[in-house]
């Protein structure tokens, strides 16, 4: 029997989003390929884990993530009704496609960007218009707006993925004001930027703006899968109508509330990563690498011209217990994306890379 006969044709053709390699458990490796936080989450989070009671597991969680929404609203200066939480921002991206773009709808994205935006479009049979970044990988927001003249949405990661390049809040605001399309700004890496260019505050003024945030990066809760989206009440109500009955489990809600409550811990970790990013980028450039000026917790870089190609180098690094990300995609084939780990991990990588390229 051909079991694929039960799969819808567009799903059968879909290329799934493929995350970074998952090293076998028990191995001592440097995980510099998934933009994970290299340091533990807040002690508040660890205490919350210890304080878990059986009732938290026995009973259904709050279907709207009530306490977490209230905490997020208070932290970012919005109402709880302007926030929706989900099982990571990846689930919220799928919801946005389902609620606002849908079958035959058009979305505009820069290229290159987070591959899940393409994947979600294919899953919902939406059309994607890709606007190529400039040769230096900066994004022309005017070109994005022009391409969206008949589109339902524009998706933009800021700081960018996989480049780490940052647009100012003024540039994003001009984009949102210049188009009638829905503008979705994914700020997954904003806490690592040298200056805060978040546009969450603008949801009060711009009815076409949605802003995504995650607890996976700066709060070190990637395993808890907590994402949130901010927007006007009408947009959030639209998403609420199609979300799962219980989109976020009780444990993850509790951990996210604890992490959010400890802002000094988050800021210290982000600053440590910023400092390590700066010193690591400087060392790479001194060794002949081309490095984009990232504002995320990673760098996109090109090995020296005389070196082995990026794909081969990634394989050799993995053989030495160092995992980095290589993308087999146009304009990225010659590059590696390297997450910022501890200063010791980055120093070790520099030593190993120097030996491999000698």
Q: How many domains, in number, for the residues?
A: 2
| pLDDT < 50 runs, ≥5 residues | none
- The average pLDDT value, as a whole number, equals 92
Please write the string of helix (H) and strand (E) elements. Answer: HEHHHEHEHEHEHEEEHHHEEHEEH
The largest sheet is: 7 strands, mixed
Helix content: 25-40%
Question: Span between N and C termini?
Answer: 54 Å
- Count of individual beta strands: 12
CATH level 1 class label of the largest domain: Alpha Beta
Characterization of the model:
The structure is a single chain. By secondary structure, this protein is an alpha/beta fold. It folds into two domains: 132 residues, Alpha-Beta Complex (Aspartate Aminotransferase, domain 1), CATH 3.90.1150; 220 residues, 3-Layer(aba) Sandwich (Aspartate Aminotransferase, domain 2). It is built from 13 helices and twelve strands. A seven-stranded mixed sheet has the order 2-8-7-6-5-3-4, sandwiched between helices. The chain has a three-stranded antiparallel sheet with strand order 9-10-12. Helix 8 links the parallel strand 5 and strand 6. Helix 2 runs antiparallel to helix 10, helix 4 packs parallel to helix 10 and helix 5 crosses helix 6. The longest helix has 24 residues. The protein is globular. The termini are far apart. The mean pLDDT is 92.
């Amino acid at each position: 029997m051909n079991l694929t006969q039960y799969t819808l044709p567009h799903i059968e053709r879909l290329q799934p989003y493929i995350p970074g390699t998952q090293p076998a458990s028990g191995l001592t490796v440097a995980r510099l390929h998934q933009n994970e936080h290299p340091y533990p989450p807040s002690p508040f989070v660890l205490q919350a884990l210890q304080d878990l009671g059986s009732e938290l597991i026995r009973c259904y969680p709050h279907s709207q993530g009530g306490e977490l929404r209230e905490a997020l609203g208070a932290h970012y200066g919005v109402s709880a009704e302007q926030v929706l939480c989900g099982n990571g921002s990846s689930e919220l991206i799928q919801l946005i496609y389902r609620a606002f773009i849908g079958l035959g709808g058009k979305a505009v994205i820069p290229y290159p960007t987070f591959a899940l935006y393409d994947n979600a479009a294919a899953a919902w049979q939406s059309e994607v218009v890709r606007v190529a970044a400039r040769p230096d990988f900066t994004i022309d927001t005017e070109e994005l707006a022009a391409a969206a003249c008949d589109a339902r949405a524009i998706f933009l990661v800021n700081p960018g993925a996989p480049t780490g390049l940052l647009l100012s809040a003024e540039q994003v605001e001009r984009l949102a004001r210049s188009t009638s399309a829905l503008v979705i700004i994914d700020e997954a890496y904003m806490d690592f930027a040298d200056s805060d260019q978040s546009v969450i505050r603008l949801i009060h003024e711009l009815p076409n703006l949605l802003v995504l945030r995650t607890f996976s990066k700066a709060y070190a809760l990637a395993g808890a899968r907590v994402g949130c989206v901010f927007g006007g009440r009408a947009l959030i109500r639209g998403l609420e109508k199609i979300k799962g009955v219980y989109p976020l489990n009780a444990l993850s809600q509790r951990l996210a509330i604890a992490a959010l409550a400890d802002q000094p811990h988050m800021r210290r970790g982000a600053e440590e990563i910023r400092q390590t990013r700066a010193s690591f980028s400087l060392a790479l450039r001194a060794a002949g690498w081309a490095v984009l000026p990232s504002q995320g917790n990673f760098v996109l870089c090109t090995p020296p011209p005389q070196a082995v190609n990026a794909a081969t180098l990634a394989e050799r690094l993995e053989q030495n217990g160092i995992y980095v990300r290589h993308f087999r995609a146009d304009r990225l084939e010659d590059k590696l994306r390297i997450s910022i780990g501890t200063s010791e991990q980055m120093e070790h990588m520099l030593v190993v890379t120097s030996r491999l390229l000698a």
